[in-house]
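Translate structure to sequence.
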């Protein structure tokens, strides 16, 4: 499945008509994502529910991106994106987890971090915009649980190739647009999907967005498994030159 996913993504990029921009363009944005967390983290066969047991709540997040588009044929455009989600909480275990027996009260901190490098082509570039490409994602997750003087750490790290697609529809003469972006991969029972839908309003060089984002991770790293989902509304502000 992994080879199939990569091959399909590569074929889409290579088969896409190269509607590169007439002029070079540069843009950047920052956003706030009010994400809710659900799912399970597993270590050595022991599972814990991050919502019902750990009571994890949003403790802060960072989201930023920058892109460069150019008129050079055959060379892809480039986009960098960074996401950091931090959650913390106090809860009680309903089952055993590592050295912690059932009934233990724990303090938990969860960090999910990803850095994306996306290479993409503009297939359409008018009032209908369509981009296709490939994302290389450096993903890491860490759950630290503490009680008294003891602690349990669950970790996962991976560098993954994901398919990339983005579509936007501009309403002529209004500065208003609606769009969606997504990354996806599935292989050997593991999967990751990350998508958002949004409305956008342009004021000169300023771009304002509001929408909904969902990130779902089902990844096994040895005996540690992260099977979690984050979703919720976001707002962003950016500039495009």
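Result:
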């Amino acid at each position: 499945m992994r080879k199939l996913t990569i091959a399909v993504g590569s074929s889409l990029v290579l088969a896409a008509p190269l509607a590169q921009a007439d002029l070079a363009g540069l843009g950047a944005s920052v956003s706030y994502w009010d994400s809710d967390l659900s799912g399970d983290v597993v270590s050595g066969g022991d599972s814990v529910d991050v919502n019902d047991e750990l009571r994890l709540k949003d403790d802060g997040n960072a989201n930023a991106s920058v892109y460069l588009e150019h008129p050079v044929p055959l060379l892809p455009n480039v986009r960098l994106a960074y996401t950091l989600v931090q959650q913390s909480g106090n809860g009680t275990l309903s089952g055993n987890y590592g050295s912690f027996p059932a009934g233990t009260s724990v303090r938990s901190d969860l960090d999910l971090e990803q850095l994306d490098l996306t290479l993409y082509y503009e297939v359409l570039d008018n009032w209908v915009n369509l981009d296709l490409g490939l994302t290389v994602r450096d993903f890491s997750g860490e759950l630290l649980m503490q009680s008294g003087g003891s602690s349990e750490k669950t970790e996962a790290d991976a560098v993954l190739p994901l398919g990339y697609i983005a579509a936007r529809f501009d309403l002529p003469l209004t500065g208003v647009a609606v769009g969606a972006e997504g990354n996806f991969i599935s292989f050997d029972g593991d999967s990751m999907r990350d998508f958002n839908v949004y409305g956008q309003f342009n004021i000169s060089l300023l771009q304002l967005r509001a929408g909904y984002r969902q990130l779902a991770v089902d990844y096994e790293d040895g005996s540690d498994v992260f099977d979690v989902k984050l979703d919720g509304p976001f707002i962003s502000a950016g500039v495009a030159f």
